[in-house]
Write a structure and sequence with these properties.
The complex is a heterodimer of chains A (342) and B (219). Chain A has 342 residues and is mainly beta. Chain A is built from 6 helices and 24 strands. In chain B, strand 14 and strand 15 form a beta hairpin. Classes of the chains: A mainly beta (342), B mainly beta (219).
Chain lengths: 342, 219
């Protein structure tokens, strides 16, 4: 017989969380150079967002930055006869639906409500399943200095959920460690937190009020352009946030992705009396089926190189190769653990 | 394709093309219930039972060989299965179809009933039947397996065609394999014969046989 039935205790299912660098080179969780595409910037999509790359290759797309304003300010109106409707209002409504799930709700950063925001949305193939909380360090530079932002997942007493899943506050800090020099919770002075961290949709929502504070109040003087949609001529706020991220002095963005890998372990146990002969043509001598060596009659030796996993109809579903042949004879048993990831 | 690192013993597992297909179908057929072992890549003539350094060295030439990574094509892997036979077995099960080379005239029919020699104490037909794979089914107007009447086998016989480029291989299951050569002249072009191979595998014993098939043109 060539096939052995697997028993119920030969199967173990395990789910493990795997974290890795979130950017193109997953072995390095940090990128320090940032590029945009002039083609994308000047296209229709450039009115809504800017794609940001870590090098000149278009395959290195890492994230997109965008700006939303409830009143449509900061970007040109779709129609000069209709005020308040522009790419920035579209983006605001898009994220409000996605994050808050209520067209009457407002974005609240700490205790401060804002009618606009910047958003950093990670490329899908980079973050796998979500952003690993506590791994973010984002440096932003403005006219009044530099600030390092992280999420407060390491110190939050409870996890808050909304329509976008888990919600943490963006605060002053690095890699999950909160800087408490100004405020014990890492917030800005009087302008709330620096934004929201939404790991399950891999998005950072930045609070323009906190970032526009002067340095003494925890800000960097980064002002969003609030020109009315009727008089705005382009989308200057996209450039503003991109410039803040890509400032030449020690620009840096660090984060890890998180993914749950479900693994199916199959334990294959050939017993001592099993699988000691082979249908390999080199095991057989002559046309009548004699084994190659007389010693193989009572003391056959085979070498396992491949494990095949089959269904009831003998269809080969999965296959595993050993890295070196495994000797098998009547005095040996083997236990091979095959891991299938889904 | 590449070699596996053999400085430590690891297991490199992948789904086969058939496994992915059944997983995508999501009809319950992707259910691992049994396993088999194979020794693909092993050349037992490298085993040296007269090694001057003794029995610990008989398998020296085999034990340290690097192995290739797994192929996803289920027809290209698990070719040579290890089998469980009583100790003292002097002859391995081998397949006999009565032909070393099948030659069929255009439009003619042939029924093949494989037999497994040296199996379970004699020569016999395997109860689970045989799988037969023709490398180019265009050469045959009929290619069917009969004799195993179960829902699973019938489903296999209906769904087991695979396409590879312009050639189509097909696999059927049965105790008897019925062939009828094609009557289509255009397949021959200017040739007087068409060639393919048929691979037969005993579903119980794992014994394997490959037979060349020639279809000769009639006028």
């Amino acid at each position: 017989m060539s096939f052995n039935r697997l028993e119920a205790d030969d199967f173990v299912v395990s789910a493990d969380s795997i974290t890795a660098g979130i950017f193109t080179d997953s072995q390095i969780p940090e990128i320090t150079t940032f590029f945009t595409s002039s083609t994308q910037r000047t296209s229709n999509s450039g009115d809504y967002y800017l794609n940001v790359f870590s090098n000149a290759a278009t395959s290195s797309l890492e994230f997109a930055v965008t700006y939303g304003n409830e009143l449509g300010s900061g970007s040109a109106a779709y129609n000069l006869d209709v005020d308040g409707k522009s790419p920035s209002s579209t983006v605001y409504g898009q994220y409000r639906t996605l994050v808050l799930g209520d067209e009457n709700a407002d974005f609240t950063f700490g205790s401060i409500t804002s009618s606009d925001f910047w958003a950093v949305s990670m490329e899908r193939s980079r973050y796998k399943e979500s952003i690993f909380p506590g791994s973010t360090t984002l440096l932003l530079r403005g006219p009044d200095g530099v600030i390092s932002l992280t999420d407060n997942s390491q110190v939050a007493s409870s996890v808050v959920f909304n329509d976008a899943g888990r919600v943490f506050q963006l605060v002053s800090g690095s890699a999950g460690t909160v800087f408490t020099t100004l405020e014990s919770n890492g917030y800005s002075i009087d302008s709330g937190s620096y934004g929201l961290f939404l790991p399950d949709i891999a998005t950072y929502i930045l609070n323009p009020r906190a970032l526009s504070n002067d340095e003494a109040d925890g800000g960097i003087g980064l002002d969003a352009t609030l020109t009315s949609a009727l008089t705005a001529t382009d989308s200057p706020n996209l450039n503003t946030i991109f410039t803040a991220i890509t400032h030449s002095n020690a620009s840096s963005f660090t984060a890890n992705s998180e993914e749950t890998i479900t693994s199916d372990f199959v334990f294959v146990r050939p017993r001592s009396s099993q699988f000691n002969y082979s249908e390999n043509p080199s095991f057989i001598s002559g046309s009548t089926g004699e084994v190659l060596y007389p010693s193989f009659i009572n003391a056959p030796t085979t070498y396992i190189t491949t494990v095949g996993l089959y269904n009831d109809t003998n269809e080969l579903l999965a296959v595993a190769k050993l890295s070196k042949p495994l000797e098998k004879d009547f005095t040996k048993e083997a236990l091979v653990r095959v891991k299938l990831d889904f | 394709m590449g070699y596996l690192n053999n400085s430590v013993v690891t297991v490199d597992a992948i789904l086969t093309t058939k496994g992915r297909e059944l997983l995508a179908k999501n009809d319950g057929t992707f259910r691992i219930t049994q396993f088999a072992l194979a020794d693909d890549e092993i050349d037992y003539t490298l085993y040296n039972p007269s090694h001057p350094s003794g029995s610990a060295y008989y398998g020296q030439a085999i034990e340290n060989m690097p192995l290739l990574e797994a192929f996803p094509d289920e027809t290209q892997i698990m070719k040579y299965k290890l089998t469980t036979l009583p100790r003292g077995t002097a002859k391995m099960p081998i397949l006999d179809v009565g032909y070393t080379n099948i030659v069929i005239k255009q439009g003619a029919s042939l029924a093949i009933t494989p037999q497994t020699l040296n199996y379970l104490g004699g020569n016999q037909n395997e109860s689970s039947g045989y799988t037969a794979t023709i490398s180019d089914v265009r050469l045959l107007s009929t290619f069917e397996g009969v004799g195993i009447d179960s829902a699973q086998t019938n489903a296999l016989n209906v769904n087991s065609t695979t396409t590879l480029g312009t050639n189509v291989s097909a696999t059927v299951v049965g105790t008897t394999i019925n062939l009828r050569a094609t009557t289509v002249n255009t397949l021959f072009g200017s040739n007087t014969a068409l060639y393919a191979t048929m691979t037969i595998v005993g579903r119980d014993s794992g014994a394997r046989l490959q037979v060349p098939i020639t279809i000769t043109k009639v006028s």
